[in-house]
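Researcher: Please generate the 3D structure of the following complex. Treat every line as part of one assembly.
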Amino acid sequence: MAEPEIKTVKKRRPLAARWRRLRRYPATLIGFFIVGFFLLMALIGPLVAPYGYSDQEMSVRFQPPSRQHLLGTDRFGRDVFSRILVGSRDVYVVAGSGALLAVLLGLTLGLIAGYFGGIVDEILMRLIDVLLAIPPLLLAMIVLFTLGGSRMNVILVVGILYIPMVARVVRSVVLDLKTRQFVEAAKLRGESSLYIMFREIFPNVLPPLAVEASMRFSYAIFLVASLGFLGLGVQPPSPDWGLMVGEARNYFSQAQWALLAPAGAMAVLVVGVGFMSDGLRRMLLPGGVSQ
Amino acid sequence: MNVNAADREAGSAPVERLGFEAEPTGLEIRDLTITYNTEGGPLDTVRNVSLSIAPGEIYGLVGESGSGKTTLARGVVQYLARNGRIKGGNIVLDGVDLLTMTKPEMRQVWGSNITMVHQDPFRSVNPSMPVGGQIAEMARIHLGMAKAEARQKAEEMLTQVRMPDPSTVARRYAHQLSGGQLQRVLIAIALTTNPRLLIMDEPTTALDVTTEAVILDLVRDLLSEYQTAVLYITHNLGVVARLCHRVGVIYAGEMMEQGPVRKVFKEMLHPYTLGLLGSVPRVDVDKRDIVLNTIPGYIPQPDNLPTGCIFAPRCLGAEEACRAARPPLVEADGGSGHLTACWRWQAVRQGPQEFAQTPDKREYREPTTEDIVLEVSQVKKYFPVSRVPFWDLLRGRRPVVRAVDDISIRVRKSFTVGIVGESGCGKTTLARCIAGLEKATAGEILLEGVKLRPSVAQRPADQLKKIQMVFQNPDASLNPQHTVGSSVARPLALLRKLSRRQIQQRLEQLFQAVNLPKDYIARLPHEISGGEKQRVAIARAFATDPTLMICDEPISSLDVSVQASLMNMLMELQDTKGTSYLFISHDLAAVRHLSSWIAVIYLGRLWEIGSALDVFKPPQHPYTEALLSALPIPDPDARQNRIRLHGDVPSAVNIPTGCRFHPRCPRKIGPICEQEEPPWHDDGHWHRICCHIPLEELAEKQKVGDNL
Amino acid sequence: MFLVLLLCSVGLIWAGGGSEGPAEPAKEGKYGGILTRAYFAPGTLDPAFASDITAGEICGLWGDYLAYVDEDLSVDQSRSLAEKWHVSADGLTWTFTLRKGVKFHNGEEMTSKDVKFTFDRLRNPDIGAATVSLYSNIADVKAPDAYTVVINLKQQNPDFLAQLGEYQAIIEWSGTKDFNTEHIFTGKFMFDTYLPEDRITFKRNPNYWRKDAEGNQLPYLDGLDYLFLPEPSSQVEALRGGQVDYLIYLPTEYVQTVEDDPNLVVYQKPSNFHYAIRMRSDRKPFSDVRVRQAFRAAVDRKEMLEGAFDGLGVTGRDTPIGPGYGDYYLDVPEPKRDVAKAKQLLAEAGYAAGLTVTLTTQQSSAMPAMATILKEQLADAGVTVDIQLVPPDVYYGADNLWLEADFAMTDWGSRATPQSYLDLAYTCDATWNESHYCDPELDELAAQAAVELDTAKRAELYAEIQRIFMDRGPLIVAYFTNNLFGANKKLKGIKPTSFFPTHVDLAVVYFED
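Model: Done. Output below.
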């Protein structure tokens, strides 16, 4: 009898193939590009910017965009384009760290609440509801007024404010996962709760968590910009985009570009993050994109 | 089926406008090819399929998962996914080529001339509308009836589908009915407009076997009164044998064999059909004589089809000619209507053994010889009911769901004990109590003489090593983010504390034992098929060399041929390793084949226990008898008793008094069944039945019907 | 968010001020019309406790002063309630003759007992008005007859008359029991309605004692609506929209906008308002005079004036005394920026490697911009400035941040006399000595100037004081601002003032089509 060969059913899809697949979704690629561009600027912005971010030159105040100043100058004669490039660092450091903090704390809370259930879940979820009930900007303002505005405090505030959303997402995924049979198989082996939470459940939480994390990043960008606009948490002459908008507001009739440029940069970045998170989801799910 | 207001206004009788012939001529599909636009390019998932169904005929379309049968059905009604389209061929129903119709015309056809019954009844009905109203809706829209008339028609249809108390049921909502009842409603909806074509897509797969039998009876009896052409899609060969007039076997999008049921089942002319039929365990054959054929290899993907016969890579009798060119569908013995797509069909007819991979018969051992490995004594598991009516709480009544209500059973070393029952009988709960995933409310469980703590978290590691479990859903049993190798290696590391190198060695051994190639070790679950995943789960369970393995419906979600290979594998492993199995399933044939000892469970209690040889022969408990007679056997000539259970399984909260089977028992003898709990009778050979009817009487009564 | 606020404010004004705009005045020549003003809501209506700008302005609307300080910071007898006055030879006794026939809003005539009542109240420590320390020099107030008031001082005070014109010192009716609900004064406008958080309205006083040059009775206006709008942007929008006729403290960024508007006009007058960049001189690093001198050398005052205040002012000389004080101002050329000298001084002081300081100031008006410019200018000299902006109520809050910080910037209003600044902030034990500067020589000179009646000698003393400031003082004063007013062109007769901007005389303004 002939021995028929065993053919494999599905081919492995390595990361490279997943990247190539993303080419079908131009929006996602645009998103990655935007986020990557600003990330690059966050790293090397001060090196590649044509002018220093705080170089004042009174003689060239309120210049419209030109060859020398791609996005014009502001009331102090500072180059707006350079300030935007250098300001990317603030965005990533402050908004990024804040979002990261929220994700880490929210992940832990969500894992614990979802896995243990019962009274632990109840208590944690009620606490989170309390946090959710307070309008974010209001809470941020109160905290910063009391503690004083510094970068660290802004990061802390952002981090704490966004814990609830992350925790909820994680918790709902955990609730679904913990009834799956591979978790029961783990229990049958006598695995500790810690192992099950972090080695069995957590890797499956990662894809939705990654998406939620990038959404938090977008929200954090806005929150930090709002705080900067109000003058909380950043001091001049910081090229924080929110602060730039706030400073440019009074001179809008004389220098529209000084306000539109940072506002536009914010909008572009947030949209980019949104596109990118879509692609992240596709990439991270095992099995890649479904038809 | 989309019906919108425009159609409603169109009213009744658009039939003439569409050109259907007054005298039905049935469905004829010629050379149909359906293609999907995927990111890898266009894929033809159904290729050159031709079949015909005469009016009043039930045509069974049989195939495994991925064969294209559902795609074909959707193609007929032109309800394909967005990226699918019909590439070629025609579909002619009563003289009209459906492919020439426009979308609005098609919408008129749906519901009036073509109807469909789907697999999952709960997903197919509108949950917010009473079921009677949904039937009436069909009548109003497609038959143009007025409201009152339609309501009457609805009740009429419910009576036709033998719904008890049709007027009350008509007012009920979907969630208030059982699966079986809902499926009847769906059939009623489908037949309201007296369609020309009725497509039934696995309508009984989600039902219990006793309910399934009733529905199958209904379908057969009902459809004999209608002139509807029926396309019945299923993977269950027994159902085809019982119900259908003609059958078509479809594999990887192409028709392999087609013809009258009797001819095809008795004289298979294609190696695939041979393999399929040979891989189903039979309950009408002596257990010791059963061997399951297996079909090696896998279904090819539509983007990677072999040249020549698409079955050739898996065919044991394939020759050069087979690999060179695609065999056409030819008629064997002119005029028989029996077609096959095989170059060597005559050889298949003459010497089928050349084409089948038949393992050797297994040696039979008496199941009472070895030591007892697991002893379950009077185990009970009660769940508190979550939503209790307030007044009951006040009165101190706290109702419980008595999922497992006093069960005792023994498992001996390297034997398999099978527990068979329908859904909700408590078999899974029992398994989970033994495993420790649920804490038993009462009773004792002893493993090799040592008492087991009720919860798995309290059990010491050496006990955990000895009991392992294989679950039903292969997709959920493996962590999708871990490689299958690491899933199997973990218990090795944790419970057997092996070194790295030892683990690697052991891994390779285990994978080999479950017939998986070594390079699978690094794969992720989504990269392997369902059957392979289940093998990995079995390998993982065997990693700790358990004394007892609990298998909770491990093969139910897999294809027929894959089930066979897994069953063979399980038996082989038992022979080599000496592990005992506790095999839990609703599939009687599989349980009978695998187990040496069988227990029948209903509403949390056991009713019959005995060796596998004894249990499925008279004397039998009436419930076992009903189960057996309900089971469709893949042999159109098989004669079975028609014993049907009526009503539904009672809720485990309100257990009937006396013998809890009495409301449905076809052999109920009288008030004693309602008042007293029945005693156990023993036939002296460890075969015990719990019934008020003594054994001799049972044997007498059951001999009258056809014995198995 | 800003846009929403703006829309809401405009909507508010529309709703609130729409129907009662300056639209249809009953005109006979100059008479008629209701003037609409807008600014922050007042803290209190009791003149003794008036401390914010609106409260101060309201005082001037419904009240009159014994001695009226005019637009050029001198006392104008024609607008004072005292007809004439003279001081004794020793400078300690002031005798005032009151006008006759001046009526309070309730019809009663103003007499000396009302004046005595007012000043006794203002200097009574039990009542605790803000003016207690200001009038602590008054020994007693006597009212020998109905139209004569005699005030005895403890020490001679050349600025005494001007002090009588402090905005709180309106003459009150002695029969008033509750100053929060009764508002009986002699002023051009009478109290009409008060809606807290919304507006206060006034109507003209038909019995007002002042007359214009042709003998017509003042005021011309029928009344005044004072809307409470805290946001400068909304005030400007209201001005442009016609709901408001006249604004004070116009922010520099809106000057261009208002000037460009064909219906509006901007009035300017130099004032003594300045931002004092003060260095705390009782500890390092600023205790070393070389560091202070280095800082002064490193700044470019003109650039700061241009950059932060759009050039609407004059540069300062690092003293609190500005050109508005006429002869008292020491006019020297603006010091040139000398970064090299700054670096050298810092090196001498031991900061060759650089110096880092924190600048604390408020998040309002031009201060953030000034901080930004200052930071850059000092960076050239090797000084790193960390800016710390705080809201005004934190700056002046319970912790008195503005008095404690090492390096800060404080806004100082335009006062009637230079002496006020010295007494308040630059003598060794001044209550508000935020720079902690203690120079015995300065104290001696200030004490002399406080009592020097001869203007020439006084000017000499002030000149000496200013030299001290320029050489070794604790301040950088980059510029003095102009008072900026925005008004509708229809509004005539506005005379911008160098004093508090609230002191514009509204009795003589009128609408013209």
